[in-house]
Backbone:
């Protein structure tokens, strides 16, 4: 425990806790905080001025990060016939229909993303209670309920990040790995924030992004200037 405390103490010396960092400064600084024996994820946290208890203030969607996420993603697709063939050709690791639903019911879920064609969502509904809590339920808003399964598989493998505001108005997401260069992280950062801005509900009043922070998996966080993020169009 003392070792962990000392590590955090050393990292805190590299951060000005009173400062609101610009995006460029924030990315450059967070790269200096790497201290783990693995390739840490660069994480962004946003506090939005919305009340997601109201349906017209829910913020949910997906965005494909230009430099990818740095993670290898296993994709499962619920599809039949030609759509199943398209999913396999696009690189999906698992493709099936009733048999895949049976596997999920049996607790076999060796995948990170689940995609389904709209005509088979009735099947998926049978395992909704299993998929929902794990964040694996296909949804049109995240592009995982679609007839264009090939594109959905490509997006999932190519750096798609799904986001959803929690009950307190927070959004957390990984936007790359600390091993990425600054340009890659900046591209991902700006693409992600612009997606959040595009999803601003018309019912949201006042300052949309109240606060923002950047961190690594194992590091303290630094504060970002929320106004700079709001201005990203």
Residues:
């Amino acid at each position: 425990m003392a070792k962990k405390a000392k590590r955090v103490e050393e990292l805190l010396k590299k951060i000005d806790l009173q400062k609101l960092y610009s995006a460029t400064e924030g990315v450059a600084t967070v790269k200096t905080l790497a201290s783990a024996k693995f390739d840490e994820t660069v994480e962004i946290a946003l506090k939005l001025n919305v009340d997601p208890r109201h349906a017209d203030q829910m913020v949910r969607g997906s965005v494909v990060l230009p430099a990818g996420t740095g993670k290898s993603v296993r994709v499962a697709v619920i599809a039949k016939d030609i759509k199943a063939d398209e999913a396999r050709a696009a690189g999906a690791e698992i493709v099936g229909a009733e048999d895949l639903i049976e596997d999920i019911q049996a607790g076999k879920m060796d995948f990170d993303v689940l995609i389904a064609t709209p005509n088979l969502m009735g099947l998926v509904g049978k395992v909704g209670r299993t998929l929902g809590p794990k964040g694996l339920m296909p949804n049109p808003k995240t592009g995982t309920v679609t007839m264009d399964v090939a594109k959905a598989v490509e997006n999932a493998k190519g750096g798609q990040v799904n986001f959803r505001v929690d009950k307190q108005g927070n959004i957390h997401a990984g936007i790359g790995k600390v091993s990425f260069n600054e340009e890659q992280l900046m591209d991902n950062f700006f693409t992600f924030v612009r997606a959040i801005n595009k999803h601003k509900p018309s019912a949201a009043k006042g300052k949309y992004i109240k606060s923002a922070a950047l961190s690594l998996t194992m590091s303290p966080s630094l504060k970002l200037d929320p106004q700079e993020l709001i201005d990203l169009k």
